[in-house]
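Hi R.,

As promised on Friday, here is the backbone we talked about, encoded as structure tokens. Could you run it through your design pipeline when you get a chance and send me back a sequence?
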């Protein structure tokens, strides 16, 4: 949520900042801005995408080898030019970009107004730059010290980068609960919300920790202190990311590219962890804490959005195969109630970005209560990955489309391996069934490839739905979370209202909605409840609903009743979600495209939700 990028070095900053902002645009795209230091502080800001900013700044003075940039996802104040970042201090000396929320900004603003500060925007961020200015000028302090003192008065979350016109040889950055990465080049530094703008310049990075303040200097030196002024010895990481991963690679949209990457990303997730020939599964994070996890009284899964849907599938998997009780919680609810979590529990957080504020907070709460906390994360080095006791990366590579696709199947792949491993260790499934499941699991990437071949047919079916105002998704058992996920994908990128429901619950309410205008997408591959699902479809047809059914290859019954069918290869029932979700991803993609929606950057959304 909000993207920050900054540069200090020998090169012209503006083109680097713009390229970086375009890479970070998936984090927020309500407005964008840059501040460049070249004797003066030149600030350019514009409502809309980064390209609007580029057009706006055409012909203006943009030289300077130090600059900061921002792409915004609005929290306080409308998405317009005035509220766009960077924000500048009253004396014009400081410019600041911020990701996060200053919760006590109203109180601070009142106090600063009394001191004569005048504000031009509705943002919490402008208050922060004025507070730093006030402290700096009052005692004539160096910028980093003024920032340090200011941050001790702030309640909330922040990643900030600040430039000072009177000190053109340094940038100061700080973070708390919002990410910030420092890229170390040859006599140059890059600062950014994630590594994507940095990777083409350097592979050496430092992930700033909470309540740390970094000063990076043109001379190539840097230092990091805590907000309590303790000097830190940072660890320099080597980035393992290729630039091609950040490009569309011939596809029109990142979402389509990411959907098609799934055979590979699922394989990558299993590589070195599952060997069907030798009959084993090994997840490093799980092995490290094997006793505590296999003997846990309960597993609690905390996540948001699509990751929460992956968690629901894990509940089915782990209870079904490993016979361990599982509860799945919206992280935002878990953190604000008074949950019973004990040292005998294992709390698993699932998050693509590893930065979701609610998921992070839920984990912190679980940690305080003594539970073992385990992270299932995509972004390497992210906050969740760093605070957990143990964890596993899903290795899906950067996911740029705001709608999560390959990260979801990565999460489900990982959780499926976890369930299998736990089941094997706890002896809750026979060795022969374990082996049978391992064999089938290694066939999944090929089967996903097969599902992707239905793309043309799915595009054709999308025509039928594209002008409908609503859609209903139904599924049972392992496919119920897929119904939820299908509905979420449709609403977030095509703005069609959609609901996911357990198929059998339809008769308890949603059936009242069904008429010839209501498309009903039914995931009907379950072997265990096949006849029941077929009856649910009959009930929809009896009320003239339009039925699109996802069925198993060779299905002869449901294909006679449904208006359209999309086939997926047969598989073991616990693995069905990995296949049945693919047609639903493609369906939403085509519908959104037909409705002229921005598939990769849907309105009001951001990829990484770092505010509550
Ligand atoms: O990064 P996370 O997995 O923690 O993000 C959670 C949700 O914000 C995310 O899944 C969101 O629902 C996606 N836009 C869904 O496509």
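Update: got your reply. Pasting your designed sequence below so it's all in one thread:
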């Amino acid at each position: 949520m909000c993207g920050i990028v900054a540069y200090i070095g020998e090169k012209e900053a503006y083109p680097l900042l713009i390229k970086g902002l375009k890479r970070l645009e998936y984090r927020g795209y309500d407005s964008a801005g840059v501040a460049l230091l070249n004797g003066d502080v030149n600030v350019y800001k514009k409502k809309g995408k980064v390209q609007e900013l580029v057009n706006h700044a055409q012909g203006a003075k943009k030289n300077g080898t130090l600059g900061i940039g921002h792409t915004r996802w609005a929290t306080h104040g409308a998405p317009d030019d005035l509220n766009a970042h960077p924000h500048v201090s009253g004396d014009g000396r400081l410019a600041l970009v911020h990701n996060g929320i200053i919760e006590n900004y109203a109180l601070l603003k009142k106090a600063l107004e009394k001191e004569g500060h005048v504000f031009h925007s509705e943002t919490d961020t402008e208050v922060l730059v004025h507070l730093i200015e006030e402290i700096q000028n009052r005692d004539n302090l160096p910028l980093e010290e003024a920032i340090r003192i200011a941050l001790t008065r702030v309640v909330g979350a922040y990643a900030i980068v600040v430039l000072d016109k009177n000190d053109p040889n340094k940038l100061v950055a700080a973070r708390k609960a919002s990410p910030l990465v420092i890229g170390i080049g040859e006599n140059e530094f890059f600062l950014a919300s994630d590594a994507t703008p940095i990777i083409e310049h350097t592979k050496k990075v430092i992930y700033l920790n909470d309540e740390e303040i970094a000063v990076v200097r043109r001379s190539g030196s840097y230092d990091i202190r805590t907000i309590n002024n303790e000097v830190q010895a940072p660890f320099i990481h080597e980035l393992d990311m290729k630039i091609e991963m950040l490009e569309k690679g011939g596809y029109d949209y990142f979402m389509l590219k990411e959907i098609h990457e799934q055979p590979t990303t699922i394989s990558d997730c299993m590589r070195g962890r599952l060997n069907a020939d030798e009959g084993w599964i090994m997840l490093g994070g799980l092995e490290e804490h094997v006793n505590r996890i296999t003997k846990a009284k309960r597993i609690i899964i905390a996540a948001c959005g699509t990751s929460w849907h992956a968690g629901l599938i894990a509940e089915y998997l782990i209870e079904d195969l490993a016979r361990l009780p599982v509860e799945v919680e919206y992280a935002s609810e878990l953190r604000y109630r008074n949950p019973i979590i004990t040292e005998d529990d294992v709390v698993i957080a699932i998050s693509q970005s590893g930065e979701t504020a609610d998921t992070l907070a839920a984990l912190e709460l679980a940690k305080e209560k003594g539970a073992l906390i385990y992270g299932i994360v995509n972004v390497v080095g992210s906050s969740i990955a760093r605070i957990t006791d143990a964890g596993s990366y899903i290795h899906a590579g950067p996911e740029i489309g705001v709608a999560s696709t390959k990260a979801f199947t990565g999460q489900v792949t990982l959780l499926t391996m976890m369930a299998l491993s736990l089941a094997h260790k706890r002896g809750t499934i026979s060795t022969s069934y374990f082996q049978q499941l391992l064999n089938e699991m290694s066939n999944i990437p090929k089967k996903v490839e097969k599902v992707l071949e239905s793309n043309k047919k799915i595009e054709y079916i999308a025509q039928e739905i594209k002008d409908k105002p609503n859609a209903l998704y139904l599924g049972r058992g392992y496919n119920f979370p897929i119904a939820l996920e299908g509905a979420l994908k449709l609403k977030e990128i095509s703005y069609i209202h959609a609901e996911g429901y357990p198929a059998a619950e339809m008769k308890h309410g949603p059936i009242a909605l069904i008429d010839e205008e209501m498309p009903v997408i039914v995931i009907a591959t379950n072997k265990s409840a096949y006849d029941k699902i077929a009856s649910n479809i009959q009930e929809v047809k009896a009320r003239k609903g339009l039925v699109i059914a996802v069925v198993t290859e060779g299905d002869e019954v449901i294909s006679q009743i449904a208006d359209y069918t999309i086939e997926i290869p047969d598989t073991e029932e616990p693995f069905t979600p990995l296949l049945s979700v693919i047609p639903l991803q493609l369906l939403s993609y085509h519908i959104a495209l037909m409705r002229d929606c921005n598939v990769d950057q849907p309105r009001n959304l951001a990829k990484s939700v770092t505010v509550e």
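One thing I noticed while checking it: The pocket of 5-amino-5-deoxy-1-O-phosphono-D-mannitol is lined by residues 304-307, 351-353, 356, 359, 402-404, 488, 492, 605, 608-609 (CB under 6 Å).

Thanks again,
M.
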